[in-house]
Amino acid sequence: MSSTDATDGVATSRGFGARWQILQPWLSLAVRLAMGIIMIAAAIPKMINIDQSVRAVRAYRLLPEAVVPLVGTALPYLELVFGLILLVGVFVRWSAIVWLVLMAAFVFGVAWAWAKGYSIDCGCFGGGGDVAVGTTNYPEHMLERAGFVALGVFLLVFPRTHASLDAWMKGEPLFSRP
């Protein structure tokens, strides 16, 4: 290998690093906004029909009946607030952690219902409750959750995003340059 080949390899690796520094905050912004939109999309149908949200929580048969109405009522409002926090980009790394904890809880709930043989609509984006046997596609729900977990892991590892209140509170520009 000549010295020119070695130099070209270094330049190429530096080029990728420079491109990643430019691309990463944009990718993280897209992931953060997607996560916020997902949370808001999950919250709104539940807020419109709180009774259905309560039925969805009840269908999992995980919580004592005394707390089911509280969880079913509060969950959509918490999802909405969390979605807005993601959209504005405040506490991005902590938001990724909260997202992953929520996804773990949702995965556990779906796995629980699946393992117990319950046939339920998860109620993740409205609806919810017991449904006819054979109408639930648990593998599809788990794949969807795996994608959501991937979003959270990406944002946890790469929390620096454009257009975030985190950057603004640090005195950085909303659209920084590497």
From TrEMBL:
It comes from the Bacteria. It comes from Demequina lutea. Its main location: membrane. InterPro entries: Methylamine_util_MauE. Pfam families: MauE (PF07291). GO terms for cellular component: membrane. This is Putative membrane protein YphA (DoxX/SURF4 family). The keyword Kinase does not apply. One of its GO terms (biological process) is methylamine metabolic process. The keyword Transmembrane helix applies. It is a multi-pass membrane protein. Residues 25-157 form the Methylamine utilisation protein MauE domain. The chain crosses the membrane at residues 26-45, 66-90, 96-115. Keywords: Membrane, Transmembrane, Transmembrane helix. It is found in: Membrane.
